[in-house]
Structure formats: structure tokens, C-alpha cells
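ingest -> validate -> predict -> emit
validate: passed (alphabet ok, no gaps, 204 aa)
predict: started
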Amino acid sequence: MIFRDSRYWCVGIIGMTSWAIVGGFSESLGISFLTTLQNISTPEAASQMSWVWVGVAVASPLAGYWYEHASNKQLPLLTLLSLSLVSFILVISGYVTNTYLIQLLLFLAGFSAGAQPIAFGLIAHIAPQRIMATAVSFCNTCVIAGAFVMQPIVSLLIDYNPFRSIDLSGSSTQYSIQDYQIGFTPIIIVVILGLIISTRTKSN
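emit:
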């Protein structure tokens, strides 16, 4: 029933896109990007990246409450995914280098992952009781796929540039900001896909 119903796939994609930045950036090569962007140490970049998880922790219950009480169910989704897209593009653009601004943008990127629990609310809205557990599990699988699929794709694209400078000893590779921007492009595409699908959900 779940696989045959396009509604479940749409909700699953929304869940996947809401977690794509966390899985494809924060859990993967985001720390390396921050060290390159700001010329800081790995521990300093890791400390900055923790703001993403603060955003997730703050946003998830608030987003769930907002969705539960919103008369227009599209609004929380569109707001959070739009926030996700704008904040992430600003982070990887390379133009923002101020430490505090980057931390704010990382917080907002994590805050936007609050759209993930909304996906479970949508599942609960459309799934009959007799397949509820399977439907929720399917949605959770799609959310995890946001990281599982993004990470190898991002890594492959970052490695794609054949003109990258390589250490003469052959022991290390220097990635440029442009390498990371190319690698993180699929995350932007996926979030835009989530926005498009969210606009097609009925407001009620």
C-alpha cells in the first residue's frame, strides 16, 4: 500500500530533503570546508559545526508544535525549507567569513531541519492505523537516506576536479572552496526538490 501510494513517497522526499544538509554537510565534509574557508583548526571548525545540532535540538519540538497548530500545513514546511536553502547557500558561497555570522547561519541551517518531524506528522495524517508503524518506518528510512545518499555523492564530486593541487609527497590533497561548492551542489538541488513538493501539498 505504501509503495503504491505517491503521497508516502512525497512525504518521504520531504523528510529526506529536510535532513540533507545535516547528513550531507554537517556529518560529512562540512568541518573540512570550514577549516578551508576560515583557515582555522579542525577543533575550532568542529566547535562551530555544533551550532547545527543546537539548531536541530531547538527547532524540532517547535516545528512539531507549529505544524500541529497551523491552519495552513504548507507554511511550516515552506518556511523551514526556504530557511534551509538560503542559510546553506550563504555558508558555502565563500563570501561570509565572519565567525559569528557563520555560526548564526549554521544554527539556522540546523533549525531548518525541524521540517523533519513535520514529515512524521504528515505520515500520521495520511496513514491508516493498520499500516501506521510501517509508514512511519518508511518515512524514517527516507530521512536517513538524506545522509546515506548525500555523503558519497558529495565526496565523489569534491574529488572530481583533476586540477587540484596535490602535496609533492603524495600524502595529502588540498581542496579549494570551489571543490567544496561543486560537491555540495546536490544538497541544494535536493532542498529545492523538497520545496517544490511542499508547494504541492494541500494546505489542509
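The mean pLDDT is 85.
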